[in-house]
UniProtKB/TrEMBL annotation:
Residues 130-266 form the Dihydrodipicolinate reductase C-terminal domain. The gene is dapB. Its EC number is 1.17.1.8. Homotetramer. It comes from Sneathiella chinensis. It comes from the Bacteria. Residues 4-127 form the Dihydrodipicolinate reductase N-terminal domain. It is an enzyme of class 1 (oxidoreductase). This is 4-hydroxy-tetrahydrodipicolinate reductase. Catalyzes the conversion of 4-hydroxy-tetrahydrodipicolinate (HTPA) to tetrahydrodipicolinate.
Length: 270
């Protein structure tokens, strides 16, 4: 069987470079191209050296539509606005798109979901096995404990991160809300400043830290009077996200059009 040809959008970014390396080192797939935004200083550069690898004889272009035409699957870790356009392209061309981008508005997310009508869309706010397991545990713990336990989601990331709370923090908060059988958006408290008043019973709170080169730390805290339960995940290297994204692309081969998540890919459902 021939290798799956994978294209990487945002290939010169922090995750893009990890993805070039991961795809090159994974059996059953090859790097078939990569794009950056028009005007990028990386246009024309060979993809291999971007990831500390030998030359691949594939250069960075800004033609995402052409990339979709020449590959079997595309992996996208860019920005919400760009990702919405790529989801539309995946739908138009009936291709696999693995989305790692976070920070979508509800409207942007709806546009991505719509692309599942004719594209194969696999989306995960966090591609690591550990975080998806943490989300399952969070849902189960939240289902057992009542509202005497205040739920807070804490996250810390590197100074370059532009969205907050992280996609992973929101994934964990949504898992907690699902466990409690409540509407996440109705109980989410996404920012406290000034005279906030007392904490509302049943709220799911978020706390965000930014600094240094932290890859991604997440804790879900269940705080009651006189006892606190914490479950945490700490990412030590972006390779864990790249590994998950490539696994998702390979998993998606021959799947019918639709929207899928990492629980589907990792087989972690209930
Ligand atoms: N799901 C997961 O497991 C993970 C998700 N992420 C998410 O992935 C996203 C990217 O993170 P990260 O790699 O750190 O960010 P970077 O800023 O390092 O990389 C993003 C890259 O995408 C490029 N880009 C922007 N728009 C386009 C476009 N239209 N076409 C092609 N390339 C484009 C950027 O170029 P330029 O700099 O010129 O704008 C940049 O090179 C974030 O949303 C982050 O939260 C990150 C890690 C793990
Ligand atoms: O921007 C990042 O770096 C990360 N983003 C994702 C998120 O928003 O949760 C995943 C990971 O934590 C790293």
């Amino acid at each position: 069987m021939s290798d799956m040809k994978i294209g990487i959008i945002g290939c010169a970014g922090r995750m893009g470079r990890m993805l070039i390396k991961q795809v090159s080192e994974t059996a059953g797939c090859t790097v078939a191209g990569g794009t950056e935004a028009p005007g990028s200083s990386f246009l024309g550069e060979d993809l291999g050296p971007l990831a500390g690898q030998v030359k691949l004889d594939a250069v960075v272009t800004d033609d995402t539509a052409a990339l979709f035409d020449t590959v079997d699957a595309v992996i996208d870790f860019t920005s919400p606005k760009a990702t919405v356009q790529h989801a539309k392209l995946a739908a138009e061309k009936g291709k696999i798109l693995v989305i790692g981008t976070t920070g979508m508005t509800n409207e942007e997310q709806a546009e991505i979901n719509a692309a599942g009508s004719s594209g194969v869309i696999v989306q995960g706010a966090n591609m690591s096995l550990g975080v998806n397991l943490l989300a399952q545990l969070t849902r189960k713990v939240a289902a057992i404990l009542d509202e005497d336990f205040d739920i807070e989601v804490l996250e810390m990331h590197h100074r370059h991160k532009v969205d907050a709370p992280s996609g992973t923090a929101l994934l964990l908060g949504k898992a907690a809300a699902e466990g409690r059988n409540v509407d996440h958006d109705a109980v989410a408290d996404r920012g406290r400043d000034g005279i906030t008043g007392e904490r509302k019973r049943g709220d799911i709170g978020y706390a965000v830290l930014r600094g240094g080169n932290v890859v991604g730390d997440h804790t879900v805290m269940f705080a009651a009077d006189n006892e606190i339960i914490e479950i945490s995940h700490k990412a030590g290297d972006r390779a864990i996200f790249a590994r998950g994204a490539v696994r998702a692309a390979l998993w998606a081969k021959d799947k019918p059009a639709g929207t899928y998540d990492m629980m589907d890919v990792l087989g972690l459902g209930d």
